[in-house]
Amino acid sequence: MELKRRALNSLEIALAGIGLSILSATILLSYQDWKLFRQASAETEHTREVLETTEALIGALKDAETGRNRTARVPHHR
């Protein structure tokens, strides 16, 4: 009876150790994924800012080009 009880306690300790190892690995992998996600989010935000700035610049250039064309077509009276 004592041997069986000791074996059962050893099995419980081993299973608890395995469970703790699995939990620790899950936490570590989740943390690494979260860090990668935060970095990707920051890079995505930067990309959006660059695109918005580029679109604004293109719009300003188009407006400037349109204004220049209008000026070129209007005869100057002196």
The low-confidence runs, each spanning 5 or more residues with pLDDT under 50, are: none
| Shape assignment | rod-shaped
Number of strands: 0
Mean pLDDT: 89
Radius of gyration: 34 Å
Biggest sheet, in brief? none
N- and C-termini, Cα separation:
118 Å
Could you say which structural class the secondary elements and strand pairing correspond to? mainly alpha
In terms of DSSP E residues, the strand content is under 5%
What string gives the helices and strands in order? H
Summarize the structure.
Helices cover 92% and strands 0% of the residues.
Explain how this protein is built.
- The chain is mainly α and 78 residues long.
- 92% of the residues lie in helices and 0% in strands.
- It is built from one helix and no strands.
- The protein is rod-shaped and about 115 Å long.
- The N and C termini lie far apart (118 Å).
- 0% of the residues are buried.
Walk me through the topology.
Elements: H1 2-73
Distinctive features:
rod-shaped, single chain, mainly alpha, 78 residues, 1 helix, 0% strand
